[in-house]
Design brief:
With about 400 residues, the protein is an alpha/beta fold. It contains 14 helices and 16 strands. The protein is about 30% helix and about 20% strand.
Length: about 400
Amino acid sequence: MKAVTWQGKRTVSVEEVPDPQIVEHTDAVVRVTSTAICGSDLHLYEVLSPYMTPGDVVGHEPMGIVEEVGAGVTHVVPGDRVVVPFNIACGHCWMCRRGLQSQCETTQVTESGCGAALLGYSKLYGQVPGGQAEYLRVPHADHGLIKIGHQLPDERYLFLSDILPTAWQAVQHAGVGEGQSVAVVGLGPVGQFAARIARHLGARVYGIEPLRERRDMAARHGVEVMAPDDEALATIREATEGRGPDAVVDAVGMEAHGNPVAAGAQHVVGILPDVLGRKLMSTVGSDRLSALHTSIDLVRRGGTVSLSGVYGGAASPMPLLRMFDKQLTLRMGQCNVRSWTDDLLPLVEDPADPLGVQDLVTHRLPLEQAPAAYEMFQKKTDGCIKVVLDPTATDRAN
């Protein structure tokens, strides 16, 4: 089969790789019909090279049709249409029973000290082949696979794999609802959904984003948008009686702009030999923290900062005195996808599309165009906000 493979820093290629097989009795094999490029994939593309091996199959936002199931799978059968969550969880361990599927004790990657295994996401998270491919092996299929109907288009459901529940969890962690205020820093795909969800739940939402096309998209959904500058922060404070919003969602993460020293550290980590690069990432701060620092500065005293953007530095500095003095609550973590899908399914299937799931994708391309799509997404050219790859399409460029 064809699959998108990591080959080096800022280099992916589409290669022929072995078809996935049933290995455990709890596995399923899914024929992928749509698979998206996530902002987290750019961390593999740009920063996390020391944890990658050339030939790794990447991608963790797929959906498709079940082709084959193991003897222990009863929840789905061949022919079922499914979405595949990015975290791999058993559904029955101590953590899973408490809704913490991203910490699943059955699939925890203990050798790297990380939580549950993830699809297509480096040695840190199990080096499990990912979903930017024609076919995908799904471990623990009974708990993981989200069974859906056949009537609506893929884009109604695809984002249940990651970014929609990630945004939902970020807003739930922020604790905002009717009559409250929230600022979303970064209006990439997760930030777009976080802002729309907060609006759906009745909050007043401010969106901070440097790129006009992303601000324009968020504005279509009732978000009050502005570029990231001192005037924007002053405007939000003025609108919230000088206090700042009740909560701030940082939807940017480790690749925020604004710190050339951290940017240099990320570059060094990416080009060092793997052993040295892993050592550096495990002992120093290698994140660009401007978005996080903005969030901490902006939120009102006694408010909440919710992190949905991924940070990777093991010792990144934090303004603890400021955080303590402001009496802040800080919540974060990988999304527990299956904890939120029952809340989200009625919304994505609603004919009114209240979260605007069909107003996010800017580019839908054949799988073979993945290298160009990664470059475009990383450089934010051609108005690129969200790319979906179609393994069933013919590459029109050939």
